[in-house]
Design goal:
Oligomer: single chain
Number of domains: 2
Strand content: under 5%
Order of helices and strands: HHHHHHHHHHHHHHHHHHHHH
CATH topology of the largest domain: Growth Hormone, Chain: A
Largest sheet: none
Structural class: mainly alpha
Bound molecules: beta-D-glucopyranose
Number of helices: 21
């Protein structure tokens, strides 16, 4: 099915080499992702030392672990406001400063109260960056590269998680939790530096009434394209939107469809279990027969952390060629089958452990989890963030992306909070089958509801919600 567009003919920047300013934009996106991933991955290794140092109760241990997520939830909403009000680039800068402050607070925390404050500040920064950086990348990338720009963000998240696992195991021996947490000051400083030399998003500049600056930025980022025509297209679309947006506008009936798509994707990305695997991989491998902590850490670092990085390259290679839908649909099949197999494997793991023997089922679990991570890494991981950042109209984009990001963090929090409880209540096998069922539900919903957005400009996508023609479903 093809889409009829109103007759506005905008020359597209050609795909090929990226201009200097675009490389800086890419650097902003990548550094923000690294920070996000590092802060998400590092706590598993730091927790032991922290608990000992401050003699923490179980409750405080949970607070130290999870308040980053709480901070991120609030930070993502604040990030939407900051990005709409003060610009995408400035929001990124603020996130960088928060990271630096949070890293210092954590590394030098004299008491647990200061440590928790540091966790909250870092979480707040993660939330602001998680909204502002992909938004910045998607608004500045040429349509032909947009999927790859946002996938680079996901790639950086996975590298951040992997680096954190590596730093954790390197520093584990000498109780260096302050170093583990403090290291994130380095990407924090980098983010401020690249943010400081980056250009502002021309779409945001037009909205802020700074037309000349917008034209200058367009000419700098894509010297080969016709800046005046690009500006006209952006103005044309923004011109149809009345005034400046409020939070209420995000829920305007006109944007119900993109909002439903973004929220659905945000929720399915989490309830299919990725963070349950990322946080509890060690424990899953332990119950699957990996006896020593070293064997568990090794399996987690490479089978989860390393594979997650490597498989994200598949998305980078194919997201702008094959499109978003094929990757999402194929990935969910792999994830669902892998989870179902883990469920089956755990049926025999329970009996085998009772007999005390080593497990073939353990190896099956390891392979199935690798398949799960690969399938997530080329699909729901990068594609969800790409689509969330490209489907909203310019007027509400910042706040709408913020709402979707906050819902994503909320779902992540719930899943990681209740995964172990669920295992206790209904058993390991049934828990994994439930996650597999969510993959099936996600597949059916995406098949029906999520349009293909590959290769279309943000203005074209925006017009498809209000115009007669619906976006193509294939
Ligand atoms: C998700 C995170 C997840 C990460 C794993 C991201 O897209 O939003 O919750 O931990 O992927 O690679």
């Amino acid at each position: 099915m093809s889409v009829t567009q109103p007759s506005i003919n905008v020359p597209r920047p050609q795909s090929g080499t990226l201009s200097g300013p675009l490389l800086v934009v890419l650097a902003v996106v990548v550094v923000a992702g690294l920070l996000f991933g590092y802060d998400q991955g590092v706590i598993s290794g730091a927790l032991g030392g922290i608990r000992q140092h401050f003699s923490l109760s179980a409750l405080l241990t949970e607070v130290v672990t999870s308040w980053v997520t709480l901070g991120a939830l609030i930070g993502s909403l604040a990030g939407g406001y900051l990005a709409d009000r003060h610009g995408r680039r400035r929001a990124v800068l603020i996130a960088g400063l928060l990271f630096i402050l949070g890293a210092f607070l954590q590394a030098f925390a004299p008491s647990v109260v200061i440590l928790v404050a540091g966790r909250l500040v870092v979480g707040f920064g993660v939330g602001v960056a998680a909204v502002a950086a992909p938004l910045y990348g998607s608004e500045l990338a040429p349509a032909s590269h947009r999927g790859r720009f946002v996938s680079a963000y996901q790639l950086a998240i996975t590298i951040g998680i992997f680096l954190a696992y590596l730093v954790d195991s390197a520093l584990a021996a000498n109780d260096s939790w302050r170093w583990m947490l403090g290291v994130s000051v380095v990407p924090g400083i980098l983010l401020v530096l690249v943010g400081a030399i980056g250009v502002e998003s021309p779409r945001w500049l037009v909205k802020a009434g700074r037309r000349d600056e917008a034209r200058a930025v367009l000419a700098r980022v894509a010297p080969e394209a016709d800046a005046a025509a690009r500006l006209a297209s952006i103005e044309h679309t923004l011109g149809e939107e009345a005034g400046s947006a409020s939070w209420r506008d995000v829920f305007d009936p006109r944007w119900r469809r993109p909002l439903a798509i973004a929220l659905g994707l945000a929720v399915f990305q989490q309830i299919t279990g990725i963070n349950a695997i990322i946080y509890y991989a060690n424990q899953i491998f332990a119950s699957a027969g990996f006896a020593t902590p070293e064997a568990q850490t090794m399996a987690t670092t490479w089978a989860v952390g390393g594979v997650n990085v490597a498989a994200t390259f598949i998305a980078i290679a194919f997201i702008d060629r094959l499109g978003r839908r094929p990757l999402l649909l194929a990935g969910l099949i792999g994830m669902g089958l892998a989870l179902a197999v883990v469920g089956i494997a755990f049926l025999s793991i329970d009996t085998q452990l009772a007999g005390g023997g080593p497990t073939t089922a353990g190896i099956v679990t390891l392979i199935a989890l690798v398949v799960f991570i690969v399938s997530f890494a080329f699909s729901l991981g990068p594609v969800v963030w790409t689509v969330i950042n490209e489907i909203f109209p310019g007027q509400v984009r910042g706040r709408a992306v913020a709402v979707a990001t906050a819902v994503n963090w909320g779902s992540a929090f719930l899943v990681s909070q209740f995964f172990l409880t669920l295992i206790e209540a209904i058993g390991t096998s049934a828990t994994f089958w439930l996650l597999a069922f969510f993959c099936l539900a996600g597949w059916l919903w995406i098949w029906r509801a999520v349009p293909e957005t590959k290769g279309r400009s943000l203005e074209e996508i925006e017009r498809s919600w209000t115009g007669q023609a619906a976006p193509a479903l294939a």
